[in-house]
Design goal:
By secondary structure, the protein is an alpha+beta fold. It is 64% helix and 6% strand. The protein is elongated and about 120 Å long. The chain starts with a helix and ends with a strand.
């Protein structure tokens, strides 16, 4: 019991001495041992690494999981050392809704068929997103967290110890200075000088030893950068694979929808336009198509001067189509397109064609010409040039 009391008294005395030294340094009333320039650079580099690692980690978490409530839930599961439950992605949820809607509308109807196709693509996108999140969490987020919760905590602990050792050293220097000043006045203080010098030697040794330990840890930040660089390359690779998958999925879907548009907007639909509801008979034009100076689209065109009746009826004969006197534009093909029938024009990526619109055509399609070949082409596959 007596030993514990003495230890507590000693600790209190050390704490008070450090507090006094720190306060006097802040007030400019005491000298402070300065670290060398190289050591200060190591400290600044370590602080910079810690701050930017925290910011990158937090923002990557936001990128992978935009929902803040879900992030809090995952954080709690992680702290409780429990497995995070599997969560349905937004794409997978959208796919479920589209599939259920197609079942209600009729999977055999054009709208139902399209909902099923788009829903399946959304499901594949959701699965790809799930895999990307899993891969990025393992290869990128986990190493960053390990640094902040492991290496950085060790560095911070040793830096605090070094700070205490420096305060003890400077306090000893101050006591020795006072003892020497008193010694000059009376020889009775010589014992105090020897005691102060002995304490100074001990604290100097402890300070030097702790400074070396801290220096080695700070120099290890370079290896941390190398490790984070490797993890960053893995993150970029995962992200590249994810977006490449998404692009391929959407390209496949676009081709499926493009090949089925000839069926959806065939003469049967045009002939039944009068009996269709306004919402079903109207298709919003794309931005690219709206820039063409074409005649406004109308559901049924009985007779159009200069254009064969086959266009108005929804069946295009390329040989009978004549370009308008004005309104043609050049367009660059974005993707390869395989013609679904003889009324369409097959396209190759990056080639240049002439396009124009005709009255009565669906706004998602244009007439394309390449030399002596002509036919319908989907607007989504084109980049219209001014």
């Amino acid at each position: 019991m007596e030993f514990n009391v003495k230890k507590l008294a000693s600790d209190a005395g050390v704490f008070f001495s450090r507090a006094m030294q720190f306060t006097e340094e802040k007030l400019g009333q005491a000298e402070k041992t300065e670290l060398d320039a190289h050591f200060e650079n190591l400290l600044a580099r370590a602080d910079c690494t810690k701050n930017w690692t925290e910011k990158i980690l937090r923002q990557t978490e936001v990128l992978l999981q935009p929902n803040p409530s879900a992030r809090v839930e995952e954080f709690l599961y992680e702290k409780l050392d429990r497995k995070v439950p599997s969560r349905v992605t937004n794409g997978e949820l959208l796919a479920q809704y589209m599939t259920e809607a197609a079942s209600d509308f009729g999977p055999g109807t054009p709208y139902g068929k399209t909902l099923i196709k788009v829903g399946e693509t959304q499901r594949r996108l959701g699965a790809a997103e799930r895999e990307f999140i899993r891969s990025a969490s393992i290869s990128f987020l986990t190493p960053l967290r390990n640094f902040l919760e492991g290496d950085w905590r060790t560095i911070s602990k040793e830096r605090r110890i070094l700070q205490n050792r420096r305060l003890d050293l400077d306090a000893c220097k101050a006591r020795l200075k006072k003892a020497k000043a008193a010694e000059a006045k009376a020889a009775l203080w010589s014992d105090e000088v020897e005691k102060a010098e002995h304490e100074l030697r001990l604290t100097q040794t402890e300070f030097d030893r702790q400074a070396e330990v801290t220096r080695l840890l700070l120099e290890g930040i370079s290896s941390t950068h190398v490790n984070h660089l490797r993890c960053l390359h893995e993150f970029v690779e995962s992200q590249t694979n994810y977006y490449a998958q998404c692009y391929q999925f959407m390209l496949d879907l676009q081709k499926q929808l493009g090949s089925s548009k000839g069926e959806i907007f065939s003469g049967t639909f045009v002939g039944n336009a009068e009996s269709a509801s306004p919402a079903a008979a109207t298709s919003p034009p794309t931005v690219a198509a709206a820039t063409l100076p074409a005649v406004p689209t109308i559901p049924v065109v009985p007779t159009i001067v200069g254009v064969p009746n086959t266009v108005a009826e929804g069946v295009l004969n390329p040989n009978e189509v004549k370009p308008p006197a004005s309104g043609t534009r050049r367009a660059r093909v974005l993707y390869d397109y395989e013609a679904a029938d003889s009324t369409e024009l097959a396209l190759l990526a990056d080639e240049m064609i002439t396009v124009y619109s005709l009255p009565g055509m669906d706004p998602d399609w244009l007439i394309g010409e390449r030399g002596n070949q002509k036919g319908k082409v989907p607007v989504t596959y084109l980049e219209l040039l001014s």
